[in-house]
Structure formats: structure tokens, C-alpha cells
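User: I've been trying to design a sequence by hand for this structure and keep getting stuck. Would you show me what you'd pick, starting by listing the structure so we're on the same page?

Assistant: Good idea, let's start from the same input. This is the structure you sent:
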């Protein structure tokens, strides 16, 4: 995230370095975002979504509109903050509080964030969700185009809290607490007397499941901007132990292994060829709705081109690559193309043939200081379906 542009120092005529500095400052000032466009249309210079509520963070209060094939169009509001905390900080913090109502009748409230202490010695990660939603399932394993759809409804209450301590350079270790309650579960076809993937796996028609436990974390993050990286990499390992002593319905474990990289292509330019790889593994018998499933990663952005929950299994391996480039010199418009693959275990616990997705999208710069983009992507799931995905912030 580039810092806010400062006023250039007084120039001394005849010094070439001053000319270079003036040219550089002119380049920074030429960058535009959506607020600049609004200001230009209204012929005003005081239109800005940013509220300086805390030193070092750029805050925004915005109405939101999103679209996802699962829940349709959703309208709501978002409070987001991003930036460096402290004058000497090199790590970017970001936190968002969002609430929306979808045309399908679904309600979503989410609080997510990665907040560094001013000295970057501590990192706090939070993921809190309240979802009153309806999601379908198609059973376990890779996509079978002949598989039936089984509509489900549930209410999710989630609280994930992790505190990490820097031990050396960009390396952090930490512990966390995790709480997932799926309540008011309605398996529509099971209520009509049918046998469904949910009832077969669960051994009956459950209306509530609870998973709660503790976790260990190891993180290395050298990205230049956690909101919209153009350099660096991320390596992340998590191990969670769901404990009956804390109230979980059953004792089971899960492990998350993740890598992200952002090389510039060409190396002398600003375009980025981003890579995302993760492995999501479970041990024991997790509740059905806690099983690894596309679109249920932290930010719900995996496997564009497929409905969230379309691919579910006891373990998953996912890989995606996306090429990002700027269309306009002022940074207002950008574009991406992407491809992904999801490999999931079948009923026998063996990884099966991967399900592939491809797509392309547009970017509109919402906040040039934080590097935040409005994203509009269209993805094709090569084994089943396609969809439009509208959101805020890069997918990874």
C-alpha cells in the first residue's frame, strides 16, 4: 500500500535531482481512484470516502453491492480500515465490518481483519460471522455432472481469534481459538423422507453441529501490501484440534497449508503474475458442514467459476494463478485473467481428478492510498456452470 502523497519540498532551480523529484511527485499525483472521479463529476475537491479515525489507518464507510451465484445480489454497508500502524511500521493492517441483505433473503454479518501492533511484534487475526443462509450440497468428491442438488438452510455463528508473536523478521508463531456452530439446519430433501449426502454422512438428520477448539500457527509474510500485493510472498501453516472438553460434538483435527507469491512480469513493470496454493486436510470425522469445501476459505474467494460448496470432501488441494495488469496510466482501471484447479478426496479418501476453472475480470481502484479495488469477475467452471462474482479487494 503506497503511503499518501506528501507535498513536494521547495525546488532549487537548476538541480537535476529536483526535476526528477518533481516528475516523480507528478506521477504520484496523477494516480486516480473512484473518489477522484466522483469529485470531478461534482466539480468538488472535498469528496473523499476516507475518515482519519486512527493515525496510520485509512478508514472508509461505504454502501456495498455484491453479487454471487449462491445468494444473488446483496446490498449493505461496509466499514473498512487499512494502513500502517505507527510511523516506523512496515506491515499493513486491515479490518472490515460488513453487513448485507441478499435478494434471496439471506443475511450476512462479518468482521474480518489482520491487525499488527504499532511495532509489528504482534499480529491479531479475527474472523467473526453470522450467516442466516441457504446453501446446496452435491455430496462428497469431485464434481459429477449427474449428481443431484440437495438444498440446505442453516444459521452459522463463527468466532475465530488468533494472536501471533513475531520471532524473527517476517516470521510469526501463535495460538488461536475457534468456534463454529451450525444451527437450525434444514435438509430439505431429507425432510421429505429422502436419503441425502448430509444424512448418510452424519448418520441421521441433525439440526445442529458444534465444533470448537484450539490452534497453532506459523506465518511468514513479506508482501508489500496485504490488501493488494505486488511483491513478496506468504507462507502459512495452521493446525486445529477440535476438543470435546470445549464443547465440540466430536474430537477431530484439521490442517491448513498455504503459499502465495507475487512476481512481477515483466520484472521491470507493474504487472503481477500471482500464485495461490493451499492444502486443507481433516483427520477424524468432522461435521459435514465443516468439511473442506470450495468458497469456504477465510475470504470465500476460492474456485471462481463454481458455486460455493459445489466441491466438498474430507481434504482438498487448490491452486490458482492470476495475471493482473493496469489498463489506464492513472491506475483507475485494471484487468485480470485467472485459472484454477481443485482436487478433492472421493468417498474412499483418495484424491481424484481435479476440477478446473478459468475466467477474466475488471478492476476499478476504490482507494489509491490503500490499493483497494472493486472486483468484477466472470468465471467458468469447466465441469459445471459459470458465474459472475462482484466484490471488494483482490481475491488473494
Amino acid at each position: 500500500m503506497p503511503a499518501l502523497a506528501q507535498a513536494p519540498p521547495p525546488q532549487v532551480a537548476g538541480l537535476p535531482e529536483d526535476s526528477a523529484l518533481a516528475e516523480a511527485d507528478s506521477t504520484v499525483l496523477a494516480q486516480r481512484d473512484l473518489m477522484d472521479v466522483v469529485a470531478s463529476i461534482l466539480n468538488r475537491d472535498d469528496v473523499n470516502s476516507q475518515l482519519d479515525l486512527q493515525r496510520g489507518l485509512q478508514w472508509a464507510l461505504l454502501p456495498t453491492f455484491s453479487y454471487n451465484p449462491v445468494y444473488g445480489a446483496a446490498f449493505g454497508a461496509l466499514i473498512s480500515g487499512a494502513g500502517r500502524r505507527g510511523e516506523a511500521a512496515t506491515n499493513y493492517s486491515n479490518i472490515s465490518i460488513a453487513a448485507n441483505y441478499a435478494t434471496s433473503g439471506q443475511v450476512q454479518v462479518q468482521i474480518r481483519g489482520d491487525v499488527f501492533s504499532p511495532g509489528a511484534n504482534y499480529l491479531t487475526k479475527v474472523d467473526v460471522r453470522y450467516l442466516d443462509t441457504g446453501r446446496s450440497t452435491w455430496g462428497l468428491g469431485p464434481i459429477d455432472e449427474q449428481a443431484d442438488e440437495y438444498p440446505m438452510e442453516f444459521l452459522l455463528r463463527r468466532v475465530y481469534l488468533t494472536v501471533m508473536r513475531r520471532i524473527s523478521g517476517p516470521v510469526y508463531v501463535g495460538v488461536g481459538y475457534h468456534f463454529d456452530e451450525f444451527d437450525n439446519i434444514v435438509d430439505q430433501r431429507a425432510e421429505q423422507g429422502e436419503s441425502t449426502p448430509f444424512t448418510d454422512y452424519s448418520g441421521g438428520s441433525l439440526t445442529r453441529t458444534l465444533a470448537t477448539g484450539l490452534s497453532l500457527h506459523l506465518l511468514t509474510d513479506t508482501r508489500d501490501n496485504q490488501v493488494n500485493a505486488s511483491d513478496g510472498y506468504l507462507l502459512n501453516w495452521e493446525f486445529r484440534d477440535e476438543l470435546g472438553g470445549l464443547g465440540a460434538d466430536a474430537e477431530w483435527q484439521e490442517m491448513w497449508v498455504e503459499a502465495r507469491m507475487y512476481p512481477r512480469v515483466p520484472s521491470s513493470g507493474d504487472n503481477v503474475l500471482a500464485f495461490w496454493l493451499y492444502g486443507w486436510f481433516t483427520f477424524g470425522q468432522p461435521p459435514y458442514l465443516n468439511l473442506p469445501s470450495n468458497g469456504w476459505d477465510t475470504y470465500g474467494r476460492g474456485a471462481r467459476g463454481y458455486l460455493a460448496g459445489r466441491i466438498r470432501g474430507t481434504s482438498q488441494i487448490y491452486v490458482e494463478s492470476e495475471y493482473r495488469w493496469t489498463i489506464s496510466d492513472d491506475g483507475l482501471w485494471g484487468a485480470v485473467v485467472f485459472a484454477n484447479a481443485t482436487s478433492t478426496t472421493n468417498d474412499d479418501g483418495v484424491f481424484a481428478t481435479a476440477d478446473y476453472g478459468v475466467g477474466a475480470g475488471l478492476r476499478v481502484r476504490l482507494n489509491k492510498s490503500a490499493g483497494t479495488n472493486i472486483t468484477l469477475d466472470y468465471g467458468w467452471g469447466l465441469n459445471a456452470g459459470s458465474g459472475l462474482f462482484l466484490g471488494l479487494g483482490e481475491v488473494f
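That's my pick for every position. To get oriented when you compare it with your attempt: The helical segments are 16-29, 34-42, 188-191, 197-202. DSSP finds four helices and 17 strands in the chain.
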